[in-house]
């Protein structure tokens, strides 16, 4: 269960801070895709890292402890879902997350800067987002969408704003929440995420709220699902 990992992760994060807390943030450049793989980021030796572009400009700063928690959540959801994917952080000022395949066909889940900030260290919210995106992969939603629109397969990093059908979104919500519960997380995390996104959509209808609409109806359904699965 994911809950049993939390004390260990907290201890590791504390050790990392004590050992490297006095050091300046570690600069890390993006890969060719313009993204950073979380598995690589958590190997950083300082408690904070600076995410930089190919020109070495600072784009974002993040605590390694948050990424450790995020990676642990991803691993737990992957186990419940019986599907694996590389988790990446990508630039973005409006909260967004996406899933698809890389150039070599590998499964990829991406979370942008704004979504990372929105989630913070709320592992239950992270489980909701990651479970939802892994469900899109498991159910081949993007592949089905590209076939329906007669589009050639494209890299996930160039099509992160893909909009799925309402049925696809409902399926991903439901399956993702089931996996979250199986992994030991609170299904109310999904409700919190979508309530926040709904509020943000009132002032800035873009990012995740553009490709994954967070409506009152959807929030109501999520609350009902969370009550049933949380028993």
TrEMBL record:
Pfam families: Peptidase_M48 (PF01435). Its cofactor is Zn(2+). InterPro entries: Mito/Outer_Membr_Metalloprot (IPR051156), Peptidase_M48 (IPR001915). Residues 86-142, 161-225 form the Peptidase M48 domain. It comes from the Bacteria. Binds 1 zinc ion per subunit. GO terms for cellular component: membrane. GO terms for biological process: proteolysis involved in protein catabolic process. One of its GO terms (molecular function) is metalloendopeptidase activity. Keywords: Hydrolase, Metal-binding, Metalloprotease, Protease, Zinc. Belongs to the peptidase M48 family. This is M48 family metallopeptidase. It comes from Elongatibacter sediminis.
């Amino acid at each position: 269960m994911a809950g049993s990992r939390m004390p260990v992760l907290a201890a590791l994060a504390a050790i990392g801070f004590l050992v490297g807390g006095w050091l300046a943030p570690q600069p890390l450049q993006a890969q060719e895709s313009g993204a950073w793989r979380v598995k690589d980021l958590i190997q950083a030796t300082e408690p904070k890292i600076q995410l930089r572009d190919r020109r070495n400009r600072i784009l974002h700063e993040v605590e390694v402890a948050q990424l450790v928690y995020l990676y642990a959540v991803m691993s737990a959801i992957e186990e419940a879902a019986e599907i694996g994917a590389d988790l990446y952080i990508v630039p973005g000022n409006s909260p967004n997350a996406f899933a698809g395949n890389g150039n070599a066909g590998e499964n990829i889940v991406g979370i942008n800067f704004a979504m990372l900030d929105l989630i913070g260290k709320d592992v239950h919210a992270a489980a909701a987002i990651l479970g939802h995106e892994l469900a899109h992969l498991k159910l081949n939603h993007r592949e089905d969408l590209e076939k329906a629109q007669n589009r050639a397969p494209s890299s996930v990093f160039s099509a992160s704003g893909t909009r799925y059908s309402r049925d696809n979104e409902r399926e991903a919500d439901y399956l993702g929440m089931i996996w979250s519960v199986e992994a030991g997380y609170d299904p109310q995390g999904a409700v919190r995420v979508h309530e926040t996104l709904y509020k943000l959509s009132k002032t800035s209808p873009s990012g995740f709220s553009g490709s994954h609409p967070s409506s009152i109806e959807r929030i109501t359904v999520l609350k009902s699902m969370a009550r049933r699965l949380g028993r």
